[in-house]
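SEVERITY: medium
COMPONENT: batch folding queue
REPORTER: lab tech (J.R.)

DESCRIPTION
The queue accepted two submissions in a row. Attaching both inputs and their returned structure tokens so the on-call engineer can compare them side by side.

ATTACHMENT 1
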Amino acid sequence: MRISVILCTYNRCQTLKSALESAAALVVPQCVEWEVLIVDNNSSDGTREVAQEFCNAYRGRFRYVFEAQQGKSYALNTGIREARGHVLAFMDDDVRVDPNWLQNLTRAFEDGDWSGAGGRIITDWTCAPPPWLSAGSRYAAGPLVAFHPQPDAGELHEPPIGTNMAFRREMFEKYGGFRVDLGPCPDSEIRGEDTEFGARLLQRGERLRYDPSAIVYHPVQPNRLNKQYFMAWWFDKARSEIRVFGVEPGTKYLVAGVPLYLLRRLAAWAVRWIFAVDPVQRFSNKLSAGMNLGEIVECFTQYSAGRKTARNVPLEEGARRVSL
């Protein structure tokens, strides 16, 4: 088996060093060929120097690629194109991987039953959560990054998350690359490029496996522990959901492209937010209202632009656009 770990990074040279240190400590069987491909998405800090340090210290293990077109999906598609592995695993520049992470994540590919795999993401708390947030809630799991859908290893029925997932290369050749209308970029924080790809495979009948022993630790960044960040994250998440899945099937009544059911939900959540007393529940209701508002904004934006929701981007098209 030949494996490429693709790590896309942008202006995070400090956390990048810690992430690469954990990757350098991976324990992988000698019979497995593997590499770590660092894709620099046009960073302006010391990213290149940090990457070069590891390329020099671990020759043949770490490689560096520069992608000038800013945008996470452009960087990911470049990584896919440049990777040498038959299995492509993904990690982020602000995490720590367990020494056995790669081995446990990719052992599903030893037979032909699985097209992709995902592992457990543990939120690494370095401080107490604020009083308005329940640390174990779904509203915390998204912005602070956690993933543990089931206690035991087995078939995965939902998309894995980008910092702890792997796919056979042929999945990208067959179904295309990551959508470039999703993923963080200079003009947008609309995410979901990772889960959209996993959902695309599941919709095509491909099988994914979950292994909780493939562990990634995602530290809580202090700048994320504020209400503004959470509101913006879930607002953009809701916009992403509309781009990927559209409105509910059978929707008939719309105003300027916005389904009436979204307007009704927004009003209901706004009332619950206003009258809630418990701080956790109050903020939860506010986030739900914000998500509905995000869906409304995306529906109206698409209506105003006079275009349909973007479809899948073939890998060859993604690679061509990346090279511009």
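ATTACHMENT 2
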Amino acid sequence: MGKPLGLVTLAVLLAACSGGLTADPEPAAFPTTTTPAASVPAGTVATTGTSAPAPPTTTIPPLISLTYTEIAGGLAAPIAMTAHPGAEEAYLATKDGRVWLLRGAILDSQPVLDITDRVRNDGEQGLLGMALHPLDQSRLFVHYSDRSGDTVVSEFALTGAGGDASSERLLLQVGQPASNHNGGMIQFGPDGLLYLGLGDGGGAGDRYGTGQNPDTLLAGIVAIDVETASAQKIMSGLRNPWRFWIDGDRIVIADVGQNLYEEISVAPLGSGPNFGWPITEGLHCYSPRSGCDTTGLTAPILEVEHGDAGTCSITGGVVYGGTAIPELDGRFLYSDYCGGWLRSVDPDDPSGWIDHTAEVGVPGNVLSFGIDGAGEVYVMTGDSLWRLTPVR
């Protein structure tokens, strides 16, 4: 099914989202008057024992632990998975430019859509995101790097026989000055708009000056009207929002840091927040190193320090909404490309984050998360797809 991502050099992989590979001096603390975020010091865990808070009253047996069940292996970098609510089939995208149909625990032998001829699959570039239209099951949307390395968001037609590669309808094309920090995630919001995360254009330290530039779509969350193919940046100051999750009328964003801090931020959809890059990295000043002006900036709810269990590049994330593990309801699950751990946090109570790694183990370099039609969570590593499963 193609060359596994595990053969790609780590330095040019998603861990390279961290930008500069040379450690920066310790930045000064990020002063803020907003609700304090939960800072995660290196080498610590917030809680131990049971994997989640006390479960709600239910007829199902008590949760003993969580585990990963391998669904498929030998994949060419599974990067996105989604399904229509209630559907028995899900779609799985691989970074090389193919989309596969997953029926239960069986992956079809042939892709339903193959656009490898127009995707540049190199390092952080490739097919990076996928979404299904919420009202029309015949419409599939993908975010990919074209042969020039630029960002493309397009629509394809789905039929009973699969996807039609010749049906491509271009919605958005954005020039990319470098090969990294392409962003990735696309997801529909309750307002019917398609949301896209874009990085700062690459390099290190906001080399191209996009982080605080209102005249570019880079370094932010972009809302796309798929009917008119119009796009607008609605959130700014993000370094590389590789993965986010829309939870009702709010968005939870896992933004990849520079050298010291990864961060998770929360904001209402359409609220227009500025998350601070490159003025801040996590809860700390980045430029300048001290005394930075944080007026008007939205601080993250949680930061993860590099060195914490191998952390180097945060991988979000799904707000759990399935039925198999009600103990996780409303919690944002996230991981890290290098560390491979699994943690969860309640966006409304970030101080109560939980580490589940002792239960599930480390399956590999975690690339992405996805869900099936029942809302159950899947984790994607370099060449495998895993389902998060309760043990009762």
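NOTES FROM REPORTER
The chain has one domain: 5-391.
No errors were logged for either attachment.
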